[in-house]
TrEMBL record:
<dbReference type="InterPro" id="IPR015421">
    <property type="entry name" value="PyrdxlP-dep_Trfase_major"/>
</dbReference>
<dbReference type="InterPro" id="IPR000192">
    <property type="entry name" value="Aminotrans_V_dom"/>
</dbReference>
<dbReference type="InterPro" id="IPR015422">
    <property type="entry name" value="PyrdxlP-dep_Trfase_small"/>
</dbReference>
<dbReference type="GO" id="GO:0016829">
    <property type="term" value="F:lyase activity"/>
</dbReference>
<feature type="domain" description="Aminotransferase class V">
    <location>
        <begin position="83"/>
        <end position="303"/>
    </location>
</feature>
<keyword id="KW-0456">Lyase</keyword>
<protein>
    <submittedName>
        <fullName>Selenocysteine lyase</fullName>
    </submittedName>
</protein>
<dbReference type="InterPro" id="IPR015424">
    <property type="entry name" value="PyrdxlP-dep_Trfase"/>
</dbReference>
<dbReference type="Pfam" id="PF00266">
    <property type="entry name" value="Aminotran_5"/>
</dbReference>
Amino acid sequence: MTPEEFRAQFPSLTDWIWLDTPGAPPGARRVVDSLTSSLDDWLSGSFEWTEWDSAADHARGEFARYTGIAPSHVASQGSLAEAAATAVRCTPPGKSILVSGDEFRSVLFPALAYAASTGTSVRVVKRKPGHSRSTELLDAIDKTTGLVLVSEVLTNDGELVDLDAICATAHRHGALVFANLTQTLGVLVSDLSGHPADIIATHGYKWMLCPRGTTWLVADPDLKLMRAHTPSWKTASSPPHYFGGPYSESATMSRCNASPAWLSWIGARAALDLLGRLDEKRCREHVLDLANAYSEVLVEAGFRILNLGRPSHVVVASPPPRHRVDAATLRRNRIRATTTEGGALRVGFHYFNVFSDVDAATAAACAGIIPCG
């Protein structure tokens, strides 16, 4: 599927130049159609709740095929925070959790809350000026580390963290790595079969085009410390039962399942079908080329790219000193992007973006530079 063919799945792109996928993408036609059909069935009373309830199980298998991993390694949950809260329980006794101080709160806060309730030590790495997140985490990993929590890309600067190096260093010290791929899976990567992280999570509502409430947690089910954060009939060994004991849990990663929000998972199945038509290498190269072209123009115009590490498809650029980017100017020019509290501009390129989007966005960004205050 070409970028133009993929683009045709998004009717809103006739009205908007959409660069705000780091926050949320526009609706894809086949995903919205699947939800609309289900809502019609709900309204008419013709739906079967047991079929809806099976959507998360089907999506878990389809996610496994999309990413090239075993279905037994996948759990379906409702949020990234739930996945992180499950992962922190895998910290080996007597070891510490390592996390960046500017990590996304749905990764950082589960670690801090777990530490407060269990006494587990959390080392929060504060970045020194001029240092990348990758460098600081690599320098901080040592023999006391039991679990490293890291997002592959954070949208506060767009750095593509060196997960290969972080995992290799952590493993040399006997530590596990939890990698949040919410900002990369579906656009920079789809094949997880050789991924170096021990535990992987992604929320589907950004680059994977799903409704909110669809998160996948990936780990080897033989990781015995990986247990259900919220045990329920969805985490039990099969066949499913609704009432009574004894307590049981699945031997696969489904033991970490959450009870599904039905409509979200129906939409996720349609999104996975669409994403499965994309070529990983072609998609990654396309969005990185767009981001590079965009960055080059803004640097020439006096912007400063905030990323201190490897570039990604997400670019955060600060205008010249004592200036900010005017959000109203962007809207007038049909640009959907985010302006930060500090006046910087954040964009993210998906496979549906094209080089004319770069031209329009850079022109609007330059036209939108206004003095602060």
